């Protein structure tokens, strides 16, 4: 078979280049940890019927890489890797998931990461400085609003402050972010103070809300010239807001300020006695700690009674309310009602022995008909008589009734006639 030598050289060069590229690709895949079966695609040369050389691609798979990888796999030992779970971490995670309450006020109150980060003195000083700048801008806005009698525009506000519109917006955003960051960083102090006032008539949610209001108020009132850290200054405002809320909203019937403060001292004294080892402190021990007498303590506890709603259920497993089992004092029992009707009928029969004027005087004097008792002067004005004359007619009417009743008088029936 005749063919040119130059064609064979060209084909050999192509085969060499293809083998080099395959070797380079296999090396890269081996570095990545993949197993590669090196496949080479040499060129098969054939001669067609016309005597020309034709390139025909055939696939020849090399077995050297396969044998080499097989030997390496044979040398490795079969090792089973069993991952041992961290039981302690799983138990903690399971307990946290089981104990998580989506209505827990503390989790809802301290949910953000910004509430768990403490501020350094330098960071706190920078935030307060930016808040002070924001307060000055708001003061300018208030003065401008009172002067214009309307809400000033952003351009008017920037002209009044002497800065550009862009700088004013930047200062407002920076001041608001600083205020939020300072408030969020002190939320844990609000929780700490609110927990001390639990059991005073307000829920923990209400205490946290009022404490947050006190914290926001302290941000507005704090001055760096006070010479103390912000937390020291805000502690008083938070506690004051919580105490004021308890005083105003903890009871249906509000107590006077002095009584409420004295009641707080009694509660603190009772806690101190319990911590001192007395599980059931006596009134003498509590009164001695507060500095009052036992009688004063009893009066204080009597005035501090908490009213119970009539719609409240008496027993937890039933729907019976206090209104259903409490007797109405305004409704008379049947026996008393019947007794009063018979007494009224008997009195009317007794009054029939008197003259019309004497009967009318007795009726007005004891309120038998109208329900209101009249004085002698008022009865005298009705009949045009003097006070003394009305008294004489009343005495004569009583004398007639005593003769009729014997030893019993009309005073015995006065309570039933009302």
From TrEMBL:
Gene Ontology MF annotations: DNA binding; sigma factor activity
Keywords: DNA-binding, Sigma factor, Transcription, Transcription regulation
GO biological process terms, semicolon-separated: cellular response to light stimulus; DNA-templated transcription initiation
InterPro entries: RNA_pol_sigma-70_dom, RNA_pol_sigma70, RNA_pol_sigma70_r2, RNA_pol_sigma70_r3, RNA_pol_sigma70_r4, RNA_pol_sigma_r2, RNA_pol_sigma_r3/r4-like, RNA_pol_sigma_SigB/C/D/F
Recorded superkingdom: Eukaryota
Coiled-coil regions, chain positions: none
Keyword Transcription regulation part of the UniProt annotation: yes
Start and end residues of each RNA polymerase sigma-70 domain: 375-401
Pfam families cross-referenced by the UniProt entry: Sigma70_r2, Sigma70_r3, Sigma70_r4
Record-stated family: Belongs to the sigma-70 factor family.
NCBIfam families xrefs: sigma70-ECF
UniProt name for this protein: RNA polymerase sigma-70 domain-containing protein
